[in-house]
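Database export, one record per block. Field names are fixed; values are copied verbatim from the stored entry.
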Amino acid sequence: MRGLIAGLALLSAQAAQAAEPPKCLTRAQVNDATLFLLPSVLDALAARCRPSLPANAYLLNGAQGLSKRLAATGGDHWQGAMSIVSQFAGDKKLPTGALSPDTARC
């Protein structure tokens, strides 16, 4: 039994060495994804935390303006954010006909 476990461990170690190293994201991709997603995150956090926050909390006041400003330029960052999804998908094909770009943005 120990020989079987040792053999499996050796095989998994060899497979890990043969596997492709993880793909790194560029700074531009991370910026685009952050700027594209941040308005939705801020709005969701504000809605979820509203009952627990004081009336003067930044998340309920200043973050709304930031969210609106970022949402106005979100379309400029869509392609960079989507490139991350494509990169992680690798050889797997993303659905093209069933999912329109407008639906994917939601």
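Remark 1: Helices lie at 2-18, 27-49, 62-72, 74-89, 101-105.
Remark 2: The mean pLDDT is 75.
End of record.
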